[in-house]
Design a protein that fits this description.
The chain is α/β, with parallel strands linked by helices. It has three domains: 8-78, no CATH class; 85-95 and 358-464, Aspartate Aminotransferase, domain 1, CATH 3.90.1150.180; 104-352, Aspartate Aminotransferase, domain 2 (3-Layer(aba) Sandwich), CATH 3.40.640.10. The chain has helices at residues 3-6, 15-19, 33-53, 63-77, 104-114, 137-144, 155-167, 188-195, 210-216, 243-253, 280-285, 311-319, 322-326, 330-344, 346-352, 354-360, 363-377, 418-426, 453-464; strands at 85-87, 91-93, 122-123, 128-129, 148-152, 171-175, 181-182, 186-187, 198-202, 221-227, 257-262, 290-294, 305-309, 383-396, 404-414, 431-433, 435-437, 440-444. The strands form five sheets. Strands 5-13-12-11-10-6-9 form a seven-stranded mixed sheet, with helices on both faces. A five-stranded mixed sheet has the order 2-14-15-18-17. β7 and β8 form a beta hairpin. The longest helix is centred in the first third of the chain and has 21 residues, at 33-53. It binds pyridoxal-5'-phosphate. Pyridoxal-5'-phosphate binds at residues 154-156, 182, 186, 227-228, 230, 260, 262-263, 294, 305, 398. The site of pyridoxal-5'-phosphate has 14 residues, from α7 and β11.
């Protein structure tokens, strides 16, 4: 018996020997010697643990095997930590998938500023100090009709800084029917508590009248707040106060009125059959002092919280020290600016903004795409049946879950488990996120970007192998 059979560890190469393996030398152009040695160390440590757990039964791996494992480690380490996926869920503004895909113009704007310097707080050509949010202020004013505007990290941050500015250590009057939770992580009462404003609930879950707000106003009142109940609807015997009636009360009593419209439609969404989506301009026109909405819901832009309203209030918000913690960076400003420019031209916005294109796609076009996908999958691997079906898909992103729009999906019946098939799709390259329901895997076509169809087919075929 040789020494190596008594002690399999002795047969293993040293960390340096393994890092020097000829098969790994292509890596030296991409990573430092230090990273290669570290990867070799990781693999050898893992192998030692495996051999120990195995009580010396297994024979030690060959240097070729070891080098292949090092190659896999280096490969894995060089993958981007976040990669794009194909959204086949049928939920257009999918928070788990990063909400809105951006318009090409916004992507170009990001690419330009990301790897370079950009005058975020410099007034070119004067060379004087400029204001960060002044970059998008004129566009926001133009599109909403507001006197002034500013931007923070997201709409939750917008609500937080607005309440902190107007009602810290005071009360905010809000309807019981509007104490909402969105996506689990946004609970209105929690955000309000963190802003330092005390919640003063009025009315009942299903009915709140303007007079309920008026009756609750007192010494301690800092603001009246209206919140768009984006993701649910109370039906039947209901009543809520209009923003106009709150503005009337607020003016009379000298109390500012805040309107959190949530999704923030800048264009009239009735053209998409979504009549009751509040339209930021309507709220500004009705006289709300401050109107808040998200940048990455119906605006189709980057994550941001947009605050528009009266000039003096916006100035106070911008002077609030919290602004320093909640401000946006050059990437957000570039993408938001490009997105707002698209909203300026409503006619062309449908082609330019991916979420508008998705909402607008006709059933005919979706059916044609679905048929092409179905045909490419006939008889492939574990796909037993691929059919085109009419379905319902949703806007998502804190918009009404009850409000669907007609859509088209490819329904896949697979041999074996559909969960397993979906698991393989999510692990593929690119990853595809489907819907699993009623014993089938559903590929919703409306939320797949048309230029992704070919990649989607490849990914489906790969998962079926
Ligand atoms: C979505 C939503 C928010 C939270 O906005 P984020 O941009 O996700 O922070 C706040 N209020 C309303 C009414 C919403 O719909």
């Amino acid at each position: 018996m040789t020494d190596t059979t008594k002690n399999p560890f002795r047969a293993l190469p040293s960390v340096n020997e393994l890092a020097d393996d000829a098969s790994l030398q292509a890596w030296s152009a991409k990573v430092s010697r230090g990273r290669m040695v570290e990867a070799a160390r990781q693999v050898l440590d893992a192998v030692r643990r495996e051999l120990t757990a195995d009580n010396g039964q297994a024979s030690p791996p060959t240097q070729t095997d070891l080098a292949q494992r090092v190659d896999r480690v280096l490969n894995l380490e060089s993958q981007p930590v976040l990669q794009s996926v194909i959204n086949a869920t049928g939920i257009i503004i999918h928070t788990g998938l990063g909400r809105s895909p951006l318009a090409a113009k916004a992507v170009d704007a990001i690419a330009d500023v990301a790897g370079h310097y950009a005058p975020v707080e410099l007034d070119l050509p004067e060379g004087a100090r400029g204001k960060r949010n002044a970059i998008v202020r004129p566009l926001l004013c133009e599109l909403t009709g507001a006197e002034s505007a500013t931007v923070v990290n997201n709409n939750a941050a917008a609500l937080m800084i607005v309440l902190h500015t107007l009602a810290k250590d005071r009360e905010v009057i809000v309807s019981r029917g509007e104490l909402i939770e969105i996506g689990g992580s946004f609970r209105l009462p929690d955000v309000m508590a963190n802003s330092g404003a005390a919640l003063r609930e009025v009315g009942t879950t299903n009915k709140t009248r303007a007079s309920d707000y008026a009756a609750a106003i007192g010494e301690q009142t800092g603001a009246l707040l209206k919140v768009h109940p984006s993701n649910y609807r109370i039906e039947g015997f209901t009543q809520s106060a209009s923003i106009a009636s709150l503005v009337e009360i607020g003016r009379e009593r000298g109390v500012p009125v805040i309107d959190d419209v949530g999704s923030g439609a800048l264009v009239d969404f009735s053209k998409f059959g979504l009549e009751d989506e509040p339209y930021a301009r309507q709220s500004v026109d009705a006289g709300a002092d401050v109107v808040l909405f998200s940048g990455d819901k119906l605006l189709g832009g980057p994550q941001a919280g947009i605050i528009v309203g009266k000039r003096d209030i916006i100035e106070r918000i911008e002077k609030n020290p919290l602004m320093r913690a909640l401000r946006v960076d050059k990437i957000t400003l570039a993408a938001l600016g490009a997105t707002l420019q698209i909203h300026r031209d409503v006619e062309r916005s449908t082609e330019q903004l991916p979420i508008f294109a998705m909402m607008h796609a006709s059933m005919d076009v979706l059916e044609t795409r679905a048929r092409a996908i179905t045909e490419a999958l006939a008889g492939v691997g574990t796909i037993a049946q691929a059919t085109v079906e009419q379905t319902t898909c949703y806007l998502g992103g804190g918009s009404l879950p009850t409000r669907g729009m007609p859509s088209v999906a490819v329904r896949l019946v697979v041999s074996g488990s559909e969960d397993e098939f979906a698991h393989r799709l999510r692990g593929g390259k690119p990853a595809v996120v489907p819907r699993v329901q009623d014993g089938a895997v559903w590929i919703e076509v409306r939320t797949v970007l048309p230029q992704e169809d070919a990649k989607l087919i490849d990914a489906l075929r790969a998962a079926a192998k």
